[in-house]
Amino acid sequence: MNYFYTFPLVFLMALFSFLLIRPAESVAQKSEAAVKQLLEDRDEEIKELLGPKGTEYTQGQREKLKNIINGIIDYRAMAQFALQDTYDTLSEEEREEFVDLFSTIIRDQSLNKLDIYRAEVKYEEVSVEGDKAEVRTMAHLEDVRTPVGYTMKYTDNNEWVMTDMIIDDVSTAASYRRQFQNIIRKKGFDSLLETLRKRAAK
């Protein structure tokens, strides 16, 4: 057997198979079904860890809840949206500190009202266009129905992340942008950063 010719042939066949499989996998991951499955799995994992109402949690369980609830949030994208043009004027060190403080505050706030994660969730619409996804759900807890939506994007790491959460028609990212821009206009970015440092330290 002539291995000089056989090796390139085997290599080309393997490469051809790779090129055939990868696009199919990518399309599957970018489908509406993939987005819905990701959110359903997250919801189920949160509910399992929450347990019945009134459950007391250890610090370890609280940290795990934070990780599950916030694990697919793109804090950098939300922070950049909230800061608008100010983000481009910051040094890399300032950006990193801001994103870190921003994510700490959101993670801590996510445990303030854990009962909302016990709600029954109905998926009303999941749409995917390229690397962007829009999700509309209705959360039903006791006698209260709350519309909850998500905007998501597909990253270079081949995973979906949240860039915004719309609760009862109020955008989380837009709310932070209004708050932050108001402080920046009146007192400057340094004042905003100091405010976040204090909130994150609580």
From TrEMBL:
**Gene3D superfamilies attached here?**
Tgt2/MlaC
Residues spanning the membrane: none
PANTHER family (alphabetical) = INTERMEMBRANE PHOSPHOLIPID TRANSPORT SYSTEM BINDING PROTEIN MLAC
Give the protein's recorded name: Phospholipid transport system substrate-binding protein
